[in-house]
Amino acid sequence: MNLISPYHPEIDSIWHAVSATGARSIAVVSALPREGASQIAVALARRAGQSAAPETTAQPGRPLAARPKALLVDLDLLRPESLRMLGQAAQPDEIVRVDGMNLAVLGNVGAETANAWRERARLTEQLAAWRSEWGTVVLDTAPLLTVERRRGLRTTAADRRAPPDSGEIAGLTAAAAADVCILVTLAGGTSGTRIREAREKLAAAGANLIGAILNDRDNPSLLAELDRETYRFAKYFPNWMAGLRARMHRSPILTVRV
């Protein structure tokens, strides 16, 4: 899987907006599964690892300089993605360091730990402990809406076996425990009703929602749409259309990656 660059212009812009709030813990949430929240969480955690992190408290025998600056915690227990994305493996509750990224990852939360962190107070207490060791903590959370609200979507085995009272750590719990949260929505995939419902749930839980990200992963680019249109006229003007496609693919505007 191709990771989003931590220096992608949009990731960099999001990171600076979060940094301006002074937040030390960030929850990346989505209304529904597979909207791209994990990719955004990994990218933000990698960006945080490259930043000038706030000073933390040194632990005995573990100098600050020897520790990564950022910690990524995968709290989506039914669909954990962070370790796979980063090419890592870990035992339950093991925090592993990602070489070359100044980043540590807790991507395999054990069952007993998960049961404890279902309580907001316990997760808030754990976040405080993490912030004493890492400059920034990024939480990749479970989707906000329950299984009943996912009906009508194409579901995975993980979605189907997750009753509302399953042992997963609720996304709302994580979002409310973090300093700030960011809502990721999939363009063309998440209805306005679902987005409003997610926002209302976050507000009711007391989460500090500071912004939303519209993921256009499944939408064709302008270049792809224009390229497709040229083939409609190719049988009438084959040489002109071939030349037009060549010029479009050299255009610095149409080929920019956003």
Write up this protein:
The protein is an alpha/beta fold. The chain has 2 domains: 207 residues, 3-Layer(aba) Sandwich (Rossmann fold), CATH 3.40.50.300; 39 residues, no CATH class. It has 10 helices and 7 strands. The chain has a 7-stranded mixed beta sheet, sandwiched between helices. Helix 8 links the parallel strand 6 and strand 7. Helix 5 crosses helix 7 and helix 9 runs antiparallel to helix 10. The longest helix is centred in the C-terminal third of the chain and has 14 residues. The radius of gyration is 21 Å and the shape is elongated. The two termini are 18 Å apart. About 7% of the residues have low confidence.
Tell me the Rg in angstroms.
21 Å
Q: What about the largest sheet? A: 7 strands, mixed
Could you name the CATH topology of the largest domain? Rossmann fold
**Helix content range of the residues, please?**
25-40%
Low-confidence stretches: 147-155, 157-166
Q: How are the strands of the biggest sheet laid out side by side? A: 3-4-2-5-1-6-7
Q: Count of DSSP helices?
A: 10
* Share of β-strand residues: 5-15%
The structure class reads alpha/beta
Mean pLDDT: 82
Helix/strand order, N-terminal first: HEHEHEEHHEHHEHEHH
How do the helices and strands line up, and which of them pair or pack?
Elements: H1 9-20, E1 25-30, H2 37-49, E2 70-74, H3 82-85, E3 95-98, E4 103-106, H4 111-117, H5 120-131, E5 136-140, H6 157-160, H7 171-177, E6 180-186, H8 192-205, E7 209-215, H9 222-230, H10 238-250
Parallel strand pairs: 1-5, 1-6, 2-4, 2-5, 6-7
Antiparallel strand pairs: 3-4
